[in-house]
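Second attempt. The first submission of Tetratricopeptide repeat protein had a stray character pasted in from the spreadsheet, which I only caught after the job came back as garbage. Lesson logged: always re-copy from the clean sequence file. Corrected sequence (477 aa) follows.
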Amino acid sequence: MKDFRSGVLNSRVIVSVVTFVVVLTALGSCANYYQKHFDFNQEFERGDLKQALETLKKNDREENGRGRFIYYVNNGLLLSVLGQYEASNNFLEKAFLFGEDYHVNYFNEAAAYFLNPNFTVYRGEDHEHLMLLYFKAINFLKMNKPEDALIECRRLNIRLNQLGDKYKSTEKLQRDAFIHNLMGIIYQSTKDYNNAFIAYRNALDVYENEYARMFSMQVPTQLKKDILNTAVWTGFYEEFEDYKLKFNMADYMPPKPDAELIFFWHNGLGPVKEEWSVNFVIDHNSGNVVVFNNQALGFSFPYEVKEDKDRTDLRKLEVFRVAFPRYTERALYYQSAAVEVGGQSFPVEIAEDINKVAFQSLKQRMLEEFSKGLVRAALKKAAEHSMRKENEGLGAVMGLVNAMTEKADTRNWQTLPHSIHYARIPLVAGANDVTFTVADASGKVVPYKFTYQAKKDQTLFHTFSSLETSGTLYRYY
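This time the job returned cleanly.
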């Protein structure tokens, strides 16, 4: 009798203690990644970048934690916008090497299957690894190191080829039009017109195919002009005539300015990951396979169960919840922009829609996300039912643990811009007064004035970041 009472008492104590711990854990884990770093995000969004950088430094323990990739790229982007290009590239290089040297921690992966994916090191989304190299290239251009910038572009090409091998879908993001365009811009700035023409032509191909199909994007008019310019300067006169006909620009002739300004506009902020819960019903009438169904969403995933005991446990299950990540767009505040110089106005055209690229990047691996989530849920529920047969109280605690720990991984690089726009502006040798204007949905225009000192045959590079999203009124440049 004493042993029986002791066992009951121990079970009650275990239930109470574990329940208390689970509740405390749950209270601290309900927020998504954005909310957990609310102070930093608010400082960044209102343009207080120095304070945001200080907040990052206070959380330097993350440099060696599960979110170190995000720590590296946030530091890299902030330092870049603040003009500390060398320091920025040091952090971005750490992020690049992290991606190159990443090794799976199998213990953490196992914990992720029984708890949730937040127990693993965040690897970074595919497009995030591409964008960090873009910022490295921009930093080198601002330091007047075009050859180093081209190295980053070649790294980008290697990464894109790796993505092509990684995914089998016809809708995979294997080529990046903007990166080819950027390579052409850099080659042209060094007077390597032959390689510039090749890069521009590659960009045109991607814009006309993958980008048109997946993102509904059009070919930038400036890219068409750059193809025509470099065709003439390389001596490809037949191609020049062919492209004039293709682009319906029969009267176009290449300009000859003293110098040029490449103006990049980083507009808005990229999407934020949030948790998305889906309820699944189990179909047991498939032999050794159970099928997880959600008719409303049209989802159906088979899961093989080889052991009789596991099939028996799963037959007790009917409906359960699985958490997945999904992106939420942060709507743009500014809708258009232009650059004015010498009485002429030049539109700033979209070259890369990072928001759409992010959605596509996650879409490419959602089948993997669903598979992992369903396996995780099945393992949790089978363990819970098995424990209930041994001890109802501990089984109840296991059920509570399962419910509280079912979380999606909402980590992502949240300081990226929503989209990248650009313009090529002719300059004169000497001082140039330039006005950059942005316009919101109502047509209200906000001007910013700059003065550039240009040398003969020089190409200058400038970036401007509008951090406003719909409902906020902050910016930084």
